């Protein structure tokens, strides 16, 4: 009898952890185990007629590494498998992903509705950059989906949000906002950096596009910059691919290779950091020198019920407000030994930052306070160190 085909030959039948080790791999004639790194800009065609067919998209293959490269393609296929997306594109940075996701589908005269609680650079794109090109924007309090509904206009073409937000870990109800966007003929773009594809699946909740700074958890070891956009083949292969091809926010093949290696261990790292973050949130919630702790899966979070429904874990990030304002926050951070002061996140090393004076310093004080960014607020990205050591470090820092 002929041997039956192994059902696990179908990638869709494999668990996410397995897909992240094997998914998207294309081996060369040498049969390498680890993915090959193609550090080349151009490609050779067997004939002039073959080159013509390649440029007409009649033959598969690569043309120029600004918009297609075998190593980058492996990264794109692998992260698409994890996200459950039809297609993906890798970009040079997370901000390149955000800008491309919005600019590629918007035209002069269009309107964007966005949650106002955004990373500083994302807010710049929505509030300052898009209007330069005749694209109006409205920022709303994203905690209540009704605010998105009220802000929609006949010319609204995109809705943008991040959840949990940077740095206060507010949540937006993705499914509810997706329903509103769809009813008005607009597309929902979700920045999923804080949750990662391990803890939250925006596409399954109704989002049209998901964006990542792959610099964060996907690399997760402070080595390489990168970004990603994921969604349907129609959206990714259409305006988004054209925008990348013509404007060049390209992902380096070397960085794509580093990110491929990061994807292999992403579930292990995210789950470990999330487990430690939950312990740290409990510790901070009971500390006399902490006025408030913000962590989606902590019962004191004002949107705890939504977090339980929307996220499988509470994130690797914890925000907390130190009593005594900025001076006390600075003293606490400066006294730490293991936890580093830096503005990055999603790293194997634990990192703390003071958003008011770093990532969100360009915003006015009124806007910062409106977004919950108080003088005493610190944002902690929990790494892979022992949770007990991190808690002891914070205990000492708060004692300072």
Shape: globular
Q: How many angstroms separate the termini?
A: 75 Å
How is the biggest beta sheet arranged?
A: 7 strands, mixed
Question: For the residues shown, what is the average pLDDT?
Answer: 95
Tell me roughly what share of residues is in helical segments.
40-55%
Biggest sheet: strand arrangement: 1-7-6-5-4-2-3
- In total, the number of strands is 12
Poorly predicted ranges (pLDDT <50, ≥5 residues)? Answer: none
Q: Structural class from helices and strands?
A: alpha/beta
Please report the number of helical segments.
15
Using only CA atoms, what is the Rg? 22 Å
Helix and strand sequence: HHHEHEHEHEHEHEHEHHEHEHEEHEH
- Could you tell me the strand content as a percent range? 5-15%
Which properties best describe this structure?
40% helix, 7-stranded mixed beta sheet, single chain, 5-stranded mixed beta sheet, 400 residues, alpha/beta
How does this model look, in words?
This protein is 40% helix and 14% strand. The chain is an alpha/beta fold and 400 residues long. Helix 1 packs antiparallel against helix 3 (70-83) and helix 13 (325-334) packs across helix 15 (387-399).
């Amino acid at each position: 009898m002929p041997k039956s085909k192994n059902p696990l030959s179908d990638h869709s039948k494999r668990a996410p952890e397995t897909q992240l080790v094997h998914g998207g791999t294309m081996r060369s004639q040498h049969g390498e185990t680890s993915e090959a790194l193609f550090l080349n800009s151009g490609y050779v065609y067997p004939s002039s007629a073959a080159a013509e067919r390649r440029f007409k998209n009649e033959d598969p293959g690569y043309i120029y590494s600004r918009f297609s490269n075998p190593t980058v393609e492996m990264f794109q296929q692998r992260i698409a498998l994890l996200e459950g997306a039809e297609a993906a594109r890798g970009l040079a940075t997370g901000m390149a992903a955000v800008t491309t996701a919005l600019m590629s589908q918007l035209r002069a005269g269009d309107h964007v509705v966005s949650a106002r609680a955004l990373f500083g650079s994302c807010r710049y794109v929505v509030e300052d950059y898009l209007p330069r090109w005749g694209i109006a924007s409205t920022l709303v309090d994203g905690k209540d989906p009704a605010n998105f509904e009220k802000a929609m206009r006949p010319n609204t073409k995109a809705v943008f949000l991040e959840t949990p937000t940077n740095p206060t870990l507010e949540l937006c109800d993705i499914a509810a906002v997706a329903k509103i966007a769809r009813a008005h003929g607009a597309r929902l773009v979700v920045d999923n950096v804080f949750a990662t594809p391990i803890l939250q699946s925006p596409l399954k909740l109704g989002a049209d596009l998901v964006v990542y700074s792959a610099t964060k958890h996907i690399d997760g070891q402070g080595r390489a910059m990168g970004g990603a956009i994921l969604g349907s083949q129609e959206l990714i292969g259409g305006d988004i691919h054209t925008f990348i091809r013509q404007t060049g926010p390209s992902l380096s093949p070397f960085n794509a290779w580093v990110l491929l290696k990061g994807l292999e261990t992403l579930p292990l790292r995210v789950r470990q950091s999330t487990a430690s973050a939950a312990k740290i949130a409990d510790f901070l919630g009971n500390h006399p020198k902490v006025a408030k702790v913000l962590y989606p899966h902590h019962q004191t979070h004002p949107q705890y019920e939504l977090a339980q429904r929307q996220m499988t874990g509470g994130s690797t990030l914890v925000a907390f407000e130190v009593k005594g304002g900025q001076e006390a926050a600075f003293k606490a951070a400066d006294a730490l030994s293991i936890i580093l002061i830096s503005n990055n996140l999603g790293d194997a090393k634990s990192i703390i930052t003071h958003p008011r004076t770093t990532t969100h310093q360009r915003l006015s004080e009124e806007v910062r306070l409106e977004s919950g960014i108080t003088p005493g607020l610190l944002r902690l990205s929990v790494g892979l160190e022992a949770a007990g050591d991190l808690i002891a470090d914070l205990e000492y820092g708060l004692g300072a």
